[in-house]
Specification:
183 residues, 4-stranded antiparallel β-sheet
Protein backbone atom coordinates (compact mmCIF):
# COMPACT_ATOMS: atom_id res chain seq x y z
CA UNK A 1 0.00 0.00 0.00
CA UNK A 2 1.36 3.44 -0.95
CA UNK A 3 0.98 6.40 1.34
CA UNK A 4 1.00 9.93 -0.12
CA UNK A 5 3.73 12.26 1.07
CA UNK A 6 2.70 15.30 3.05
CA UNK A 7 3.70 18.65 1.52
CA UNK A 8 6.83 20.14 3.04
CA UNK A 9 9.57 22.69 2.32
CA UNK A 10 13.01 22.52 3.89
CA UNK A 11 15.98 24.67 2.93
CA UNK A 12 19.19 22.87 3.77
CA UNK A 13 21.67 25.74 3.53
CA UNK A 14 20.93 28.07 6.44
CA UNK A 15 19.45 27.66 9.90
CA UNK A 16 17.69 30.62 11.46
CA UNK A 17 17.59 31.36 15.19
CA UNK A 18 16.77 34.24 17.48
CA UNK A 19 20.14 35.99 17.38
CA UNK A 20 21.30 36.69 13.85
CA UNK A 21 24.77 37.57 12.69
CA UNK A 22 24.60 40.57 10.40
CA UNK A 23 26.75 42.46 7.92
CA UNK A 24 29.60 40.00 7.46
CA UNK A 25 32.44 41.83 5.71
CA UNK A 26 35.58 40.34 4.20
CA UNK A 27 38.59 42.57 3.54
CA UNK A 28 41.97 41.71 2.07
CA UNK A 29 45.16 43.79 2.29
CA UNK A 30 45.90 43.56 -1.47
CA UNK A 31 45.06 41.36 -4.45
CA UNK A 32 48.09 41.22 -6.78
CA UNK A 33 50.54 39.27 -4.69
CA UNK A 34 53.98 37.97 -5.66
CA UNK A 35 54.38 34.24 -5.07
CA UNK A 36 56.76 33.30 -2.19
CA UNK A 37 57.31 37.01 -1.50
CA UNK A 38 54.06 38.63 -0.31
CA UNK A 39 51.69 37.89 2.54
CA UNK A 40 47.90 37.99 2.35
CA UNK A 41 45.84 39.27 5.26
CA UNK A 42 42.10 38.57 5.29
CA UNK A 43 39.87 40.25 7.88
CA UNK A 44 36.35 38.95 8.47
CA UNK A 45 34.15 41.25 10.56
CA UNK A 46 30.50 41.46 11.60
CA UNK A 47 28.41 44.39 12.81
CA UNK A 48 26.37 42.34 15.28
CA UNK A 49 26.48 38.93 16.90
CA UNK A 50 28.00 37.43 20.03
CA UNK A 51 30.08 34.36 20.93
CA UNK A 52 31.36 34.24 17.37
CA UNK A 53 33.57 31.60 15.82
CA UNK A 54 35.11 31.69 12.34
CA UNK A 55 35.87 29.09 9.70
CA UNK A 56 37.94 29.89 6.62
CA UNK A 57 38.01 27.99 3.33
CA UNK A 58 40.28 28.27 0.30
CA UNK A 59 38.69 26.84 -2.84
CA UNK A 60 36.16 24.88 -0.72
CA UNK A 61 38.90 23.38 1.52
CA UNK A 62 39.04 24.33 5.20
CA UNK A 63 42.12 26.39 6.05
CA UNK A 64 43.89 25.23 9.22
CA UNK A 65 46.72 26.58 11.35
CA UNK A 66 48.83 23.55 10.39
CA UNK A 67 48.89 24.66 6.73
CA UNK A 68 52.24 26.19 5.72
CA UNK A 69 52.49 29.90 6.51
CA UNK A 70 48.96 30.16 7.95
CA UNK A 71 48.31 32.17 11.10
CA UNK A 72 44.99 33.09 12.72
CA UNK A 73 44.55 36.07 15.05
CA UNK A 74 41.81 38.15 16.67
CA UNK A 75 39.93 34.96 17.72
CA UNK A 76 40.30 33.58 14.16
CA UNK A 77 38.64 36.62 12.54
CA UNK A 78 41.95 37.45 10.81
CA UNK A 79 43.69 34.99 8.51
CA UNK A 80 47.29 35.70 7.48
CA UNK A 81 49.11 33.64 4.85
CA UNK A 82 52.85 34.34 4.73
CA UNK A 83 54.72 33.86 1.47
CA UNK A 84 51.65 33.08 -0.64
CA UNK A 85 51.81 30.48 -3.38
CA UNK A 86 49.66 29.64 -6.40
CA UNK A 87 47.75 27.24 -4.11
CA UNK A 88 46.46 30.23 -2.16
CA UNK A 89 44.51 31.49 -5.19
CA UNK A 90 41.06 31.13 -3.62
CA UNK A 91 38.27 31.86 -3.66
CA UNK A 92 38.46 32.47 0.08
CA UNK A 93 35.30 32.25 2.17
CA UNK A 94 34.72 33.38 5.73
CA UNK A 95 31.96 31.55 7.61
CA UNK A 96 30.86 33.07 10.92
CA UNK A 97 28.95 31.06 13.52
CA UNK A 98 27.55 31.85 16.93
CA UNK A 99 26.38 28.41 17.98
CA UNK A 100 22.86 29.21 16.84
CA UNK A 101 23.18 30.62 13.36
CA UNK A 102 25.51 30.14 10.45
CA UNK A 103 25.84 33.42 8.64
CA UNK A 104 25.62 33.69 4.90
CA UNK A 105 29.06 33.07 3.53
CA UNK A 106 30.90 35.85 1.81
CA UNK A 107 33.22 35.23 -1.07
CA UNK A 108 35.84 37.49 -2.66
CA UNK A 109 36.71 37.00 -6.32
CA UNK A 110 38.87 38.84 -8.84
CA UNK A 111 37.23 40.69 -11.73
CA UNK A 112 36.88 38.43 -14.75
CA UNK A 113 36.16 35.35 -12.62
CA UNK A 114 33.34 32.96 -13.51
CA UNK A 115 31.25 32.48 -10.37
CA UNK A 116 28.56 29.84 -9.94
CA UNK A 117 26.01 30.15 -7.15
CA UNK A 118 23.75 27.24 -6.33
CA UNK A 119 20.90 26.71 -3.91
CA UNK A 120 19.10 23.53 -2.90
CA UNK A 121 15.83 22.82 -1.16
CA UNK A 122 14.11 19.63 -0.14
CA UNK A 123 10.45 20.18 -0.87
CA UNK A 124 7.33 18.22 -1.76
CA UNK A 125 5.88 19.23 -4.02
CA UNK A 126 8.90 20.78 -5.67
CA UNK A 127 9.43 24.39 -4.65
CA UNK A 128 9.91 27.18 -7.17
CA UNK A 129 13.03 29.32 -6.92
CA UNK A 130 13.69 33.02 -7.60
CA UNK A 131 17.07 34.76 -7.55
CA UNK A 132 17.61 38.30 -6.28
CA UNK A 133 20.58 40.67 -6.45
CA UNK A 134 20.51 43.38 -3.75
CA UNK A 135 16.78 42.58 -3.29
CA UNK A 136 15.99 43.11 -7.01
CA UNK A 137 14.41 40.12 -8.78
CA UNK A 138 16.78 38.76 -11.45
CA UNK A 139 13.99 36.87 -13.21
CA UNK A 140 15.96 33.60 -12.91
CA UNK A 141 14.28 30.41 -11.73
CA UNK A 142 16.99 27.73 -11.82
CA UNK A 143 18.74 26.39 -8.72
CA UNK A 144 22.06 27.59 -10.15
CA UNK A 145 23.22 30.87 -11.65
CA UNK A 146 26.57 31.83 -13.15
CA UNK A 147 28.23 35.24 -13.21
CA UNK A 148 30.47 35.12 -16.28
CA UNK A 149 33.49 37.45 -16.40
CA UNK A 150 32.35 39.11 -13.15
CA UNK A 151 32.67 42.88 -12.81
CA UNK A 152 33.00 45.03 -9.68
CA UNK A 153 29.43 46.33 -10.13
CA UNK A 154 28.22 42.76 -9.49
CA UNK A 155 29.39 43.01 -5.87
CA UNK A 156 26.44 42.61 -3.55
CA UNK A 157 23.98 40.27 -1.89
CA UNK A 158 22.62 37.32 -3.86
CA UNK A 159 19.55 35.57 -2.51
CA UNK A 160 17.62 32.51 -3.62
CA UNK A 161 14.01 32.33 -2.48
CA UNK A 162 12.09 29.05 -2.47
CA UNK A 163 8.31 28.80 -2.44
CA UNK A 164 6.14 25.72 -1.96
CA UNK A 165 2.76 26.62 -3.49
CA UNK A 166 0.90 23.86 -1.62
CA UNK A 167 2.14 24.74 1.88
CA UNK A 168 2.48 28.48 1.07
CA UNK A 169 5.89 28.36 2.76
CA UNK A 170 8.80 30.55 1.74
CA UNK A 171 12.44 30.13 2.70
CA UNK A 172 15.59 31.82 1.49
CA UNK A 173 19.34 31.97 1.80
CA UNK A 174 21.52 34.99 1.08
CA UNK A 175 25.25 35.40 0.47
CA UNK A 176 27.54 38.36 -0.14
CA UNK A 177 29.77 38.22 -3.23
CA UNK A 178 32.58 40.76 -3.51
CA UNK A 179 34.31 41.33 -6.86
CA UNK A 180 37.76 42.88 -6.42
CA UNK A 181 39.77 44.72 -9.04
CA UNK A 182 42.77 42.83 -10.42
CA UNK A 183 44.97 45.88 -9.93
Amino acid sequence: MEYPMAPFLTIILLTFATELISNVTLRVNKVNLVEFNDSAVFNCSVSSGSSLSYRWTNNNTVVTQVDDGVHFSDQDAVLTIANVSRYNGGPFLCQVMNGKVISPMMAAYKTGSNITLSCQAESFPTATVQWFFNEMDLGLSDTQITLQHAKENQTGYYKCLFHNAVTSRFSSVKTMIRILSKS
